[in-house]
Amino acid sequence: MHHTGFRCLAGCHPAAENASLTAIPLMLSHTMPNASKPLTRPLAIAVLMITACLFAANHVAARVAFDDGVGVLLAILSRGSLAFLLMFGLVLAQRHRLVIPRQSGGWQLLLGVMIAGQSFCLYSAVARIPIAVALLLVNTWPILYALLTWLLGGRRPTLRLAVIMAFILFGLVMVLDLGAWLADPAAMGPDWLLGVILASTAALFFAVAIWVTENRLSQMPGAVRSLFTMMTVLLLMAAGGALGLVPGGLDLPQSTIGWVGLISLAILYGTAFTVLFVLVPRLNMARNAPVMNMEPVAALLLGFVVLGQVLAPVQLFGGAVVLGSIVWLSVMHRN
Q: What is the mean pLDDT of residues 59-67?
Protein backbone atom coordinates (compact mmCIF):
# COMPACT_ATOMS: atom_id res chain seq x y z
CA MET A 1 0.00 0.00 0.00
CA HIS A 2 3.00 3.83 -0.32
CA HIS A 3 4.83 5.94 -3.01
CA THR A 4 6.56 8.43 -4.34
CA GLY A 5 5.45 9.55 -1.31
CA PHE A 6 3.65 6.72 0.45
CA ARG A 7 0.28 8.02 -0.45
CA CYS A 8 -1.46 5.10 -1.96
CA LEU A 9 -2.04 2.46 0.22
CA ALA A 10 -4.96 0.26 0.80
CA GLY A 11 -6.48 -1.21 -2.25
CA CYS A 12 -4.72 -4.42 -1.46
CA HIS A 13 -5.02 -4.35 2.24
CA PRO A 14 -8.31 -6.15 2.62
CA ALA A 15 -6.53 -9.39 2.07
CA ALA A 16 -3.34 -8.24 3.54
CA GLU A 17 -4.46 -8.14 7.07
CA ASN A 18 -3.23 -4.99 8.28
CA ALA A 19 0.37 -4.61 7.68
CA SER A 20 0.36 -0.93 8.05
CA LEU A 21 -2.92 0.63 8.88
CA THR A 22 -1.87 4.02 7.59
CA ALA A 23 -1.66 2.43 4.19
CA ILE A 24 -5.23 1.17 4.13
CA PRO A 25 -7.28 4.33 4.19
CA LEU A 26 -4.98 6.23 1.89
CA MET A 27 -5.49 3.86 -0.97
CA LEU A 28 -9.16 3.46 -0.23
CA SER A 29 -9.56 7.20 -0.47
CA HIS A 30 -8.99 6.93 -4.19
CA THR A 31 -11.83 4.46 -4.57
CA MET A 32 -14.85 6.27 -3.26
CA PRO A 33 -16.63 9.52 -4.00
CA ASN A 34 -15.76 12.31 -1.59
CA ALA A 35 -19.11 14.04 -1.59
CA SER A 36 -20.02 13.27 2.02
CA LYS A 37 -19.54 15.88 4.70
CA PRO A 38 -16.31 15.24 6.68
CA LEU A 39 -16.62 14.15 10.28
CA THR A 40 -15.39 16.49 12.98
CA ARG A 41 -11.74 15.87 13.76
CA PRO A 42 -12.37 14.43 17.28
CA LEU A 43 -14.94 12.03 15.85
CA ALA A 44 -12.69 11.07 12.92
CA ILE A 45 -9.80 10.38 15.30
CA ALA A 46 -12.09 8.31 17.52
CA VAL A 47 -13.20 6.23 14.52
CA LEU A 48 -9.58 5.62 13.47
CA MET A 49 -8.52 4.67 17.00
CA ILE A 50 -11.40 2.22 17.32
CA THR A 51 -10.57 0.74 13.91
CA ALA A 52 -6.91 0.34 14.85
CA CYS A 53 -7.98 -1.44 18.05
CA LEU A 54 -10.26 -3.74 16.03
CA PHE A 55 -7.38 -4.70 13.77
CA ALA A 56 -5.14 -5.28 16.78
CA ALA A 57 -7.85 -7.37 18.45
CA ASN A 58 -8.07 -9.43 15.27
CA HIS A 59 -4.44 -10.47 15.75
CA VAL A 60 -5.02 -11.29 19.39
CA ALA A 61 -8.04 -13.42 18.47
CA ALA A 62 -5.88 -15.15 15.86
CA ARG A 63 -3.26 -16.01 18.49
CA VAL A 64 -5.98 -17.41 20.76
CA ALA A 65 -7.16 -19.57 17.86
CA PHE A 66 -3.63 -20.70 16.97
CA ASP A 67 -2.88 -21.64 20.57
CA ASP A 68 -5.96 -23.90 20.42
CA GLY A 69 -4.71 -25.70 17.33
CA VAL A 70 -6.31 -23.70 14.50
CA GLY A 71 -4.39 -23.91 11.24
CA VAL A 72 -3.02 -20.73 9.70
CA LEU A 73 -4.67 -21.40 6.34
CA LEU A 74 -8.05 -21.90 7.97
CA ALA A 75 -7.70 -18.60 9.83
CA ILE A 76 -6.85 -16.72 6.63
CA LEU A 77 -9.71 -18.42 4.77
CA SER A 78 -12.18 -17.52 7.53
CA ARG A 79 -11.11 -13.90 7.68
CA GLY A 80 -10.77 -13.56 3.92
CA SER A 81 -14.13 -15.13 3.12
CA LEU A 82 -16.07 -12.66 5.24
CA ALA A 83 -14.02 -9.72 3.94
CA PHE A 84 -14.56 -10.91 0.37
CA LEU A 85 -18.33 -11.06 0.81
CA LEU A 86 -18.39 -7.59 2.37
CA MET A 87 -16.21 -6.18 -0.40
CA PHE A 88 -18.32 -7.85 -3.08
CA GLY A 89 -21.40 -6.16 -1.64
CA LEU A 90 -19.63 -2.80 -1.70
CA VAL A 91 -18.51 -3.31 -5.29
CA LEU A 92 -22.08 -4.07 -6.33
CA ALA A 93 -23.36 -1.07 -4.39
CA GLN A 94 -20.88 1.19 -6.18
CA ARG A 95 -21.72 -0.44 -9.52
CA HIS A 96 -18.14 -1.12 -10.53
CA ARG A 97 -17.42 -3.34 -13.53
CA LEU A 98 -15.58 -6.49 -12.51
CA VAL A 99 -13.02 -6.29 -15.30
CA ILE A 100 -9.22 -6.42 -15.21
CA PRO A 101 -7.56 -4.59 -18.13
CA ARG A 102 -5.66 -7.04 -20.31
CA GLN A 103 -2.31 -5.36 -19.70
CA SER A 104 -2.87 -5.47 -15.95
CA GLY A 105 -3.75 -9.14 -15.55
CA GLY A 106 -0.25 -10.33 -14.68
CA TRP A 107 0.33 -7.51 -12.22
CA GLN A 108 -3.02 -8.14 -10.53
CA LEU A 109 -2.07 -11.80 -10.13
CA LEU A 110 1.31 -10.80 -8.68
CA LEU A 111 -0.43 -8.48 -6.24
CA GLY A 112 -2.67 -11.32 -5.08
CA VAL A 113 0.31 -13.64 -4.63
CA MET A 114 2.22 -11.01 -2.63
CA ILE A 115 -0.73 -10.36 -0.33
CA ALA A 116 -1.27 -14.10 0.11
CA GLY A 117 2.37 -14.46 1.11
CA GLN A 118 2.12 -11.47 3.42
CA SER A 119 -1.01 -12.81 5.08
CA PHE A 120 0.48 -16.26 5.60
CA CYS A 121 3.79 -14.97 6.95
CA LEU A 122 2.17 -12.43 9.27
CA TYR A 123 -0.25 -14.91 10.81
CA SER A 124 2.53 -17.50 11.09
CA ALA A 125 4.64 -14.91 12.93
CA VAL A 126 1.75 -13.98 15.22
CA ALA A 127 1.48 -17.66 16.13
CA ARG A 128 5.12 -17.72 17.26
CA ILE A 129 6.22 -14.39 18.75
CA PRO A 130 4.56 -11.58 20.73
CA ILE A 131 1.99 -9.85 18.56
CA ALA A 132 3.39 -6.36 19.13
CA VAL A 133 6.84 -7.49 17.97
CA ALA A 134 5.39 -9.09 14.82
CA LEU A 135 3.41 -5.96 13.94
CA LEU A 136 6.36 -3.64 14.54
CA LEU A 137 8.48 -5.74 12.20
CA VAL A 138 5.81 -5.76 9.50
CA ASN A 139 5.33 -2.02 9.86
CA THR A 140 8.91 -1.46 8.71
CA TRP A 141 7.77 -2.16 5.14
CA PRO A 142 8.17 1.54 4.15
CA ILE A 143 11.95 1.09 4.43
CA LEU A 144 11.84 -1.84 2.02
CA TYR A 145 9.44 0.03 -0.24
CA ALA A 146 11.74 3.05 -0.46
CA LEU A 147 14.74 0.85 -1.27
CA LEU A 148 12.75 -1.18 -3.80
CA THR A 149 11.53 1.98 -5.52
CA TRP A 150 15.11 3.27 -5.71
CA LEU A 151 16.43 -0.04 -7.13
CA LEU A 152 13.72 -0.02 -9.80
CA GLY A 153 14.60 3.44 -11.02
CA GLY A 154 12.57 5.64 -8.70
CA ARG A 155 13.65 8.45 -6.40
CA ARG A 156 16.68 7.92 -4.23
CA PRO A 157 15.87 8.07 -0.51
CA THR A 158 16.48 11.52 0.92
CA LEU A 159 18.85 12.18 3.80
CA ARG A 160 15.87 12.73 6.12
CA LEU A 161 14.37 9.40 5.08
CA ALA A 162 17.72 7.69 5.66
CA VAL A 163 17.84 9.17 9.19
CA ILE A 164 14.31 7.89 9.91
CA MET A 165 15.28 4.45 8.60
CA ALA A 166 18.28 4.44 10.94
CA PHE A 167 16.03 5.29 13.89
CA ILE A 168 13.64 2.48 12.94
CA LEU A 169 16.47 -0.05 12.67
CA PHE A 170 17.91 1.15 16.00
CA GLY A 171 14.50 0.68 17.60
CA LEU A 172 14.14 -2.79 16.11
CA VAL A 173 17.44 -3.87 17.62
CA MET A 174 15.94 -3.07 21.02
CA VAL A 175 12.50 -4.54 20.19
CA LEU A 176 14.12 -7.81 19.20
CA ASP A 177 16.37 -7.64 22.28
CA LEU A 178 19.25 -8.88 20.17
CA GLY A 179 21.68 -8.69 23.07
CA ALA A 180 19.67 -11.15 25.14
CA TRP A 181 19.05 -13.36 22.12
CA LEU A 182 22.73 -13.55 21.18
CA ALA A 183 23.70 -14.22 24.77
CA ASP A 184 21.18 -17.04 25.20
CA PRO A 185 19.15 -17.92 22.08
CA ALA A 186 17.20 -20.58 23.98
CA ALA A 187 15.85 -17.99 26.41
CA MET A 188 13.81 -16.35 23.65
CA GLY A 189 12.00 -19.59 22.85
CA PRO A 190 12.41 -22.10 20.03
CA ASP A 191 10.19 -20.19 17.60
CA TRP A 192 11.66 -16.71 18.11
CA LEU A 193 14.05 -16.66 15.13
CA LEU A 194 11.52 -18.22 12.75
CA GLY A 195 8.84 -15.77 13.90
CA VAL A 196 11.15 -12.80 13.29
CA ILE A 197 12.05 -14.10 9.82
CA LEU A 198 8.37 -14.63 8.96
CA ALA A 199 7.36 -11.14 10.09
CA SER A 200 10.25 -9.58 8.17
CA THR A 201 9.29 -11.58 5.09
CA ALA A 202 5.72 -10.34 5.44
CA ALA A 203 7.08 -6.77 5.34
CA LEU A 204 8.96 -7.57 2.13
CA PHE A 205 5.89 -9.11 0.48
CA PHE A 206 3.87 -6.08 1.48
CA ALA A 207 6.44 -3.64 0.11
CA VAL A 208 6.35 -5.39 -3.26
CA ALA A 209 2.54 -5.37 -3.20
CA ILE A 210 2.53 -1.63 -2.58
CA TRP A 211 4.97 -1.02 -5.41
CA VAL A 212 2.81 -3.04 -7.81
CA THR A 213 -0.33 -1.23 -6.69
CA GLU A 214 1.23 2.20 -6.96
CA ASN A 215 3.15 1.72 -10.20
CA ARG A 216 1.20 -0.84 -12.21
CA LEU A 217 -2.40 -0.96 -10.97
CA SER A 218 -3.14 2.58 -9.86
CA GLN A 219 -5.67 3.09 -12.67
CA MET A 220 -7.92 0.26 -11.50
CA PRO A 221 -10.75 1.13 -9.10
CA GLY A 222 -9.54 0.27 -5.59
CA ALA A 223 -12.63 -1.77 -4.76
CA VAL A 224 -12.22 -3.94 -7.86
CA ARG A 225 -8.49 -4.36 -7.25
CA SER A 226 -9.16 -5.34 -3.64
CA LEU A 227 -11.86 -7.82 -4.61
CA PHE A 228 -9.64 -9.65 -7.10
CA THR A 229 -6.76 -9.58 -4.63
CA MET A 230 -8.86 -11.19 -1.91
CA MET A 231 -10.15 -13.76 -4.38
CA THR A 232 -6.56 -14.70 -5.30
CA VAL A 233 -5.64 -15.02 -1.63
CA LEU A 234 -8.60 -17.29 -0.94
CA LEU A 235 -7.86 -19.50 -3.94
CA LEU A 236 -4.20 -19.86 -2.99
CA MET A 237 -4.98 -20.66 0.64
CA ALA A 238 -7.64 -23.19 -0.39
CA ALA A 239 -5.25 -24.81 -2.88
CA GLY A 240 -2.48 -24.96 -0.28
CA GLY A 241 -4.83 -26.66 2.15
CA ALA A 242 -6.25 -29.10 -0.41
CA LEU A 243 -2.77 -30.12 -1.59
CA GLY A 244 -1.43 -30.43 1.94
CA LEU A 245 1.37 -27.94 1.30
CA VAL A 246 1.11 -26.59 4.86
CA PRO A 247 0.91 -29.39 7.43
CA GLY A 248 -1.98 -28.69 9.78
CA GLY A 249 -2.94 -25.61 7.79
CA LEU A 250 -6.63 -26.44 7.91
CA ASP A 251 -6.75 -27.87 11.43
CA LEU A 252 -9.94 -27.07 13.36
CA PRO A 253 -10.04 -25.66 16.90
CA GLN A 254 -9.69 -28.16 19.73
CA SER A 255 -12.10 -26.43 22.10
CA THR A 256 -14.71 -23.70 22.41
CA ILE A 257 -12.10 -21.01 23.03
CA GLY A 258 -10.51 -21.81 19.69
CA TRP A 259 -13.82 -21.44 17.89
CA VAL A 260 -14.39 -18.13 19.64
CA GLY A 261 -10.98 -16.94 18.49
CA LEU A 262 -11.57 -18.09 14.90
CA ILE A 263 -14.99 -16.49 14.61
CA SER A 264 -13.81 -13.33 16.36
CA LEU A 265 -10.83 -12.77 14.09
CA ALA A 266 -13.09 -12.89 11.03
CA ILE A 267 -15.69 -10.55 12.52
CA LEU A 268 -13.13 -8.09 13.88
CA TYR A 269 -11.24 -7.85 10.61
CA GLY A 270 -14.35 -7.67 8.45
CA THR A 271 -15.88 -4.98 10.67
CA ALA A 272 -12.73 -2.86 10.81
CA PHE A 273 -12.14 -2.97 7.07
CA THR A 274 -15.74 -2.22 6.19
CA VAL A 275 -15.85 0.75 8.56
CA LEU A 276 -12.71 2.14 6.94
CA PHE A 277 -13.93 1.57 3.42
CA VAL A 278 -17.26 3.25 4.04
CA LEU A 279 -16.02 6.18 6.13
CA VAL A 280 -12.65 7.01 4.53
CA PRO A 281 -14.08 9.88 2.44
CA ARG A 282 -15.22 11.55 5.67
CA LEU A 283 -12.10 11.00 7.79
CA ASN A 284 -9.69 13.57 6.28
CA MET A 285 -6.95 10.96 6.02
CA ALA A 286 -4.32 13.43 4.82
CA ARG A 287 -4.43 14.92 8.31
CA ASN A 288 -5.55 12.04 10.52
CA ALA A 289 -4.01 8.84 9.09
CA PRO A 290 -1.00 8.78 11.51
CA VAL A 291 -3.49 8.02 14.31
CA MET A 292 -3.77 4.49 12.96
CA ASN A 293 -0.14 3.77 13.78
CA MET A 294 -1.38 3.10 17.30
CA GLU A 295 -2.23 -0.46 16.25
CA PRO A 296 1.01 -2.00 17.64
CA VAL A 297 0.34 -0.17 20.92
CA ALA A 298 -3.18 -1.55 21.05
CA ALA A 299 -1.81 -5.00 20.24
CA LEU A 300 0.71 -4.67 23.06
CA LEU A 301 -2.00 -3.80 25.59
CA LEU A 302 -4.45 -6.44 24.37
CA GLY A 303 -1.68 -9.03 24.20
CA PHE A 304 -0.90 -8.35 27.86
CA VAL A 305 -4.54 -8.41 29.01
CA VAL A 306 -5.72 -11.40 26.98
CA LEU A 307 -2.57 -13.46 26.45
CA GLY A 308 -0.28 -12.37 29.25
CA GLN A 309 2.41 -11.32 26.77
CA VAL A 310 4.93 -9.00 28.41
CA LEU A 311 7.85 -7.19 26.78
CA ALA A 312 11.02 -6.17 28.60
CA PRO A 313 11.59 -2.45 29.25
CA VAL A 314 14.23 -2.26 26.52
CA GLN A 315 11.75 -3.77 24.05
CA LEU A 316 9.07 -1.26 25.05
CA PHE A 317 11.50 1.62 24.55
CA GLY A 318 12.52 0.20 21.18
CA GLY A 319 8.88 -0.12 20.19
CA ALA A 320 8.32 3.53 21.06
CA VAL A 321 11.28 4.51 18.86
CA VAL A 322 9.97 2.45 15.94
CA LEU A 323 6.43 3.71 16.31
CA GLY A 324 7.53 7.33 16.66
CA SER A 325 9.70 7.02 13.57
CA ILE A 326 6.84 5.53 11.55
CA VAL A 327 4.57 8.41 12.58
CA TRP A 328 7.34 10.86 11.66
CA LEU A 329 7.66 9.17 8.28
CA SER A 330 3.94 9.29 7.54
CA VAL A 331 3.64 12.94 8.60
CA MET A 332 6.72 13.90 6.56
CA HIS A 333 5.31 12.38 3.39
CA ARG A 334 1.95 14.02 3.85
CA ASN A 335 3.60 17.38 4.19
A: 97
